Fold each of these.
Amino acid sequence: MAGVRRVVAVALGCALVTGCSSPWATPPLPDPSASPSTGPSAASGAEPAGSRSYSPPPWVLPRTPAPTSPAPTSSTTSEPATADAAPAPEPRRAYLTVPRLGLRDFPVVRYRGSPDDAPGTEIQNDGDLASPRGPGGGVAAGEVGNHIVTGHRLSSTEPFRYLPSLPRGSRVLVRVGDTVHVYEVRRTRWTSFRSQESLAAQRAPVPGRPGVEATRPMITLSTCATLEDHAAGNYWSDEFDNPEHRIDKIGVLVATRPA
């Protein structure tokens, strides 16, 4: 019994003395906040004998890293892409050349309306050719659809005086800005101003074929059939003195080139 008391006393005494270790002493846990690279063996790179790696218990949340500022952008960063510029508006005036008719760079004035209406008739009375745009008219030269050009035959400057005799295969050139659109005449049709169906066919995207979707640029050159109507005893005319019938030359685009 005395021997046991002596061993316990020695153990307690050693616990109070610095540097004394006891077989029952619990080694302290490493500080989880200490970085392994700052430990006493960091300089030598050797791990102390008997040391153990520390794994924090599952209830210890990992530290949230401090927010970092974004890296500065280079001064050579490209500018953001900009939207394409809107296309230039169609010029109000184009120029028509028909070698077989002796026409060269004859002015064609576009307007919003339908063929041979009040604005169109006024343009023709002033001596120019007229080209309607909008739901009741046609499209611009070179565009897919029906480009309509109307002109007087027996009054004003008479630009289309000989249009009815223009044969198939004749070339029609429309110059717009720095581009020339070349059409070739393919057929002739007649339009009656007293028939809404006939007028709709004249203005259709595919001339003479209402309801058919256009797939290529086409052209309609139109003038009055006054001589033919009068010869047949038909003297009907509308409020603008247009006779019942008009003679239309229909062509298709075959080339486009710089002016």
Note: Residues 2-15 form the longest helix (14 residues).
Amino acid sequence: MRRKASLVLLACAVFCAALSPLLRWYAFPRLARIPANQYQDMVLTARNATLLDYGTMRARKVPEVTIVQTLKGDVKAAKRIERTAGRPVVVWDSLSYVQGPDGKMISRVPERYIFDAHSQDPVHATGESVDGDPVKRDGIEFKWPSLTRKRDYEYFDAQTRTTSPIHYEGTRTFRGVRVYYFEQTIPWTKVPFPKTMPVQGITPESVARTGTTRWYTTIRRFWVEPVTGAPVYGEEIHREELRGGTLLGGRAKVTAFAGHVKMREDYIEHTVALVKHNRTLVLMLTSYLPWGSLALGIVLLALSLWLEARTRRPRDATPTPTDEPDPVGA
């Protein structure tokens, strides 16, 4: 009986030991993926910002500028691209909508972002664009890969349509969550006008004919939870200027927007709670279950060997009493 139990325990130990690497290296890449149908929104604000009044073409201080960012997954497009890409793909249609304190639109810039569902590496396919212009992204955007490392990453800037390093600047704690802090500086760069302008009748083409150009710089900061690769907080010190041309009435430049853009408090709380939940799920596949399965396999192996040793132990020889036959008389 002990021999059978030992063999059963040995089989279970082998199974658990084999399950450990399978969970980490096979199940994790296939289960830890961005869902193709994901929808999320984010509200950011810039208080006491500087904003261009297109009526007078002069900059003025405003109490608040609001930026609403939405991401919506296109499932049909993702399945179509997957057939040729040969890997799981997510297609995000995003919109950055900026409005002034009066609720009127300042700018709206749509994007189509196509990327690998697990690694977040960009996937180049028809439709990849910023504000309707085709682009070919290099590097990440919106999200870091799961199990983010302490190193610099290439990050795509939608305004300049270029990729440059975003630097790892150390480990910090944000709202009780251990995070990696990243920072990127985009120097003053000439960028195109949004195709949707805040003033009816004004188009990027009509502005270009005046000789006026648009310039942009920003300091981009992210606090990234390394297990999930999700930013729990982000902000930008953002500046835009119009330079030259007849539109400015002889002035060399005018500030179009300047402000410290930060996530709104209620969205910070929601994001931190969501990231903490997803962090537990990722750790289950990368740490808790693989190491737990390996530890259980070792325990079962030790128990199996112990039972086998008990089975093979020689039994103690104990003398057995013998009955002397009664003498037989004649």
Note: Helices lie at 2-31, 75-85, 204-209, 265-312.
